[in-house]
Amino acid sequence: xxxxxxxxxxxxRPSPGRKFEVGDRVTIxxxxxxxxxxxxxxxxxxxxxxxxxxxxxxxxxxxxxGFDGLPERVLxxxxxxQNDVWPAYTGAGHDLIELEIFEHWLIPA
Length: 109
Prior knowledge:
With 109 residues, this protein is mainly β. It has a single domain, classed as SH3 type barrels, CATH 2.30.30.50. It has two helices and five strands, in the order E-E-H-E-H-E-E. The termini are far apart. The mean pLDDT is 87.
């Protein structure tokens, strides 16, 4: 008998039908939607590379307002160069920042 249990808060699902694959270049949409948004303002309009497909989850932007968050959305980890995000960044040119961004925020670069 397996002793592993799914955590009750987890809404992870496999992600068939996703739009992007690891290595794809994507740009974060510059969406000015009001209210709670999981995607930071500072990353909107920036271009990065898909580092990982995290799976499909309920949309927390809708769940924050009491909705069910369905349909589930694919979540990606996107890697950005620090210099591309922060033009005045004075650290090493190879420094990176990684953020988890839902698919509905991404467009092909």
